Backbone:
């Protein structure tokens, strides 16, 4: 049985400095070679503060939580049995290298399917600029617990 | 002010053809993303968990789909992006990321359906994005 008392649980907030080197490594992994994502001078020449963080970086910031992947254990999902089911983002502003951002995440819902063989935990996140708390992006993440028989 | 391109339902975004997925790419993505879950980078752990091998981070597949979107419209124009992970992707599989305009509203915002699939035709990820061409590039 899934423990619905986790609904509303929050990991508080954490702050992340977005680094040029991290964005460049991420671009390499994604096969992204366009200069606004890889070359600071080119990004500035194009009118940006620095390298642009790609859309999916909004998810990478969740990995920077003080508990790391330990959030899965906190919601009752063993790492060996986890699958990512869905991910939703809404975007309000771009993030760039050099920005300091604030991240929060909380449990929005949980439920089961297939007679308990599959558990689902829905997590909502919010990213803002640390300086003024203005909204950058929100996220909705559905993690699946595929229980091994 | 940029002029929105003429966009109509049924338009295909330029697809992204990817090289065969390697374990090296998964290792780089683990490092850059911060997602160090061993299912994606440690074959021993993945097998002990009942999988046949390491497998791709779903969000790396989402990142490929995002490249299709930002290759078509400046990233500022991306308002919403959502994906549903349909099947696990294994090392060696060859992926194609695609996008198709589904609708354009009166204000000029386009809804785009995205799909990541293998060249053999197996769907891995489906999703949807909303792109508003009236957001001005370079204004960040």
Residues:
């Amino acid at each position: 049985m899934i423990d619905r008392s986790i609904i509303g649980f929050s990991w508080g907030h954490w702050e992340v400095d977005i680094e040029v080197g991290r964005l460049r490594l991420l671009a390499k992994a994604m096969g992204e070679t366009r200069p606004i994502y890889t070359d600071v001078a080119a990004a500035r020449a194009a009118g940006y503060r620095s390298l642009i963080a790609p859309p999916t970086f909004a998810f990478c910031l969740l990995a920077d939580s003080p508990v790391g992947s330990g959030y899965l254990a906190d919601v009752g999902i063993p790492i060996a049995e986890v699958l990512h089911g869905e991910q939703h983002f809404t975007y309000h502003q771009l993030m760039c290298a050099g920005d300091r951002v604030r991240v929060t995440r909380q449990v929005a819902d949980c439920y089961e399917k297939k007679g308990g063989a599959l558990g689902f935990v829905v997590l909502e996140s919010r990213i803002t600029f640390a300086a003024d708390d203005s909204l950058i992006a929100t996220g909705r993440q559905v993690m699946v617990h595929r229980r091994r028989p | 002010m940029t002029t929105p391109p003429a966009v109509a339902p049924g338009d295909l975004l330029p697809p992204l053809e990817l090289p065969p997925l390697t374990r090296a790419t998964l290792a780089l993505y683990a490092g850059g993303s911060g997602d160090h879950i061993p299912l994606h980078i440690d074959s021993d752990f993945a097998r002990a968990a009942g999988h046949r091998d390491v497998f791709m981070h779903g969000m790396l597949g989402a990142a490929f789909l995002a490249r299709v979107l930002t290759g078509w419209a400046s990233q500022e124009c991306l308002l919403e992006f959502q994906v549903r992970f349909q099947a696990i992707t294994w090392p060696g599989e060859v992926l194609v990321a695609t996008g198709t305009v589904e609708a354009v509203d009166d204000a000029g915002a386009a809804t785009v359906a995205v799909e990541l699939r293998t060249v053999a035709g197996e769907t891995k990820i489906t999703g949807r994005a909303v792109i508003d061409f009236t957001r001005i590039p370079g204004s960040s």
Chain A has a mean pLDDT of 96. The CA atoms of residues 36 and 47 of chain A lie 10 Å apart. Strands of chain A lie at 10-17, 82-91, 100-113, 118-129, 135-146. Residues 4-18+53-146 of chain A form a domain with the Thiol Ester Dehydrase; Chain A fold (CATH 3.10.129.10).
